[in-house]
Amino acid sequence: MKLALLLLALAAPFAAAGPFSGGKGDAGNAFDAPVPGFTGPAGDGNAPVGSGAVAHAANRVNPLFFGWADQVQSYDRAGMGGTYALPERALGAVTGDEFDVVALGDGSPPGSLTLRLAGPVRNLPGADFAVFENALSSGASGQVFGELLYVEVSSDGVTFARFPSISLTPKPATTFWAFGTFAASDVFNLAGKHVNANGESWGTPFDLTYLAAEPQVTSGQVNLQAIAYVRLVDVPGDGGYFDRANELGYADSHPIYDPWPTSSFGSAGADIEAVGVISRWLDFAAWLDLRGFTGPDRAETADPEGNGLPNLLDYAFVTFGKQGAPVRATLDEGRAGIEFVRDERALDLIYEVRVSSDLVQWTTIARSSGGQPTVGVDGHEPGITETSGSAAASVGVLHRVRVSEELAENAPRFFRVEIQRIAP
Question: Which one, out of 20, 91, 118, 170, has a CA that is 20 to 30 A from the CA of 228?
């Protein structure tokens, strides 16, 4: 269904400006809203590094990510030398540091980097992983200095399927310093279009749904429910390489333009900083491992982050590194209720909404178990809605749940949500 909707929306002539997301923010963009690398009191996308080290110090790596590239399978640099030739720099969590990168080099054939993902990554709703290049904001409206990448995935490390992409940039990049810029909103399904430098950190989302019709997938060689590798291939931006817009609703494919050549610097070609995994089945023990907690800090009731919430609630409500209550009361046209975020990936959790009139006797009226939607239980039929639980429209695994009941006159009503762990 998502693909069919996209085809209708993208049916536009080449000359039209792209409808895709800008280089940063643009949380409501329906196509590829960038995913913040960092979240917290300093605001989404603000990294505590470089020029933002002090102002953004309270921010943490976005808890949405449940794993990162953890092993280099192959690194083929176009051209020799350079000071950014350590592929291990692409492993682990995003840093937002534009110098903590591995460059693919300029040349022919283009450079590439193949990474193993902490997985397996699955095709769940919305973005399944995000790629962080070190694109810069040019200061001009909507323009970025970024070096674009084709993105391919594999379940066995041998056969790869490439994301169909769109580049509506009509001519070589306009002048910026010694190179050029392009409008991020003209580019789709190519990594490198989102800003990840100078204290700002945004990743480009990729949804495995767009690969459903690829021959490697339909033949069974690539399993979209068990993606273990991602390959990033540099796109020399001279117009000699093309997108696959014809597969996404346009009449033709188009040349891809980005700043090129960049061979006068050690970081020639695209510069890869991190690849973050979103769509994995979760369990509490693996979440603790990802956070690096040991000893007493691994307890459900421990609060090693110091944000006032125990580990189990940070895990359930995706609040690690954030301050404030994870639930809120609602009152709308005589209906009272409770609202919270549910993580579809958490197969070892039960979310139960319970009500009481005296804070002593509690009755369960709604439940979500093992990642399934929230439903009424035991004959109860409360009002239940589930909408996007993420600020970024591209993220689909988080659900904002609201459960409500009509208020009886002069009768108090209390709501709470309880979290239980079960065997996944």
Answer: 20
HSE value, Cβ hemisphere, 13 Å, CA-based, for 75: 20
| 319-323, long-range: CB < 8 A, 24+ apart | 319/63, 320/60, 320/63, 320/291, 321/39, 321/40, 321/59, 321/60, 321/61, 321/63, 322/39, 322/40, 322/41, 322/60, 322/63, 323/40, 323/41
pLDDT at 11: 38
Token pair recorded at residue 20: 């895709």
Q: What angle do CA 207, 212, 217 make, to 5 degrees?
A: 115
| Cβ atoms 59, 201 nearer than 8 A | no
Report in angstroms the alpha-carbon separations of 20 from 6, 24, 152, 159, 261: 11, 11, 20, 29, 25
List the one residue out of 150, 155, 334 whose CA is nearest residue 243: 150
List the strands of the sheet with 335-343, edge to edge.
327-332, 335-343, 398-406, 383-388
The CA-based dihedral angle spanning residues 371, 420, 408, 325, taken in that order and rounded to the nearest 10 degrees:
-90
Partner residues linked to 341 by β-bridges = 400
Q: Are 140 and 181 in contact (CB under 8 A)?
A: yes
In the chain, which residues have pLDDT < 50? 1-16, 176-177
Residue 129 has φ and ψ, to the nearest 5°, of -160, 170
Instruction: Judge whether 60 and 77 are in contact, CB under 8 Å.
Output: no
pLDDT for res 201: 97
What is the rounded distance in angstroms from the CA atom of residue 305 to the CA atom of residue 63?
12
Q: Are 153 and 211 in contact (CB under 8 A)?
A: yes
Quote the CA–CA distance of 136 and 145 in Å, as a whole number.
5
pLDDT per residue as tens digits for the range 382-405 = 999 999 999 999 999 999 999 999
Q: How high is the pLDDT of residue 12?
A: 38
3-state helix, strand, coil in the chain (%, to 5): 10, 35, 50
Q: At 159, list the tokens.
A: 């056969």
Model's pTM, two decimal places? 0.92
Cα distance between residue 309 and residue 306, in whole Å:
7
Using left for φ > 0, alpha for ψ between -120 and 50, and beta otherwise, residue 37 falls in alpha
Give the Cα separation of 34 and 360 in Å (integer): 45
